[in-house]
Amino acid sequence: MLWLVLIAVGGPFLVSLAATFGVRAWARRAEFVDRPGGHKRHEVPVALGGGVALFASICGPIFLGTILAWVVHGGDTRPEWLPGIVQTHLAGIASKLPAALAIVGGAFVLHVVGLIDDCRPLGPAPKFIAQFAVAVFIAGPVGIRAVEALPAPLSITVTVLWIVLITNAFNFLDNMDGLSAGVAAIAAAIFAVTAARSGQVFVPAMSCVVVGGLLGFLVYNFSP
Question: What are the DSSP E strand ranges found in 13-172?
Answer without folding.
Answer: 33-34, 46-47
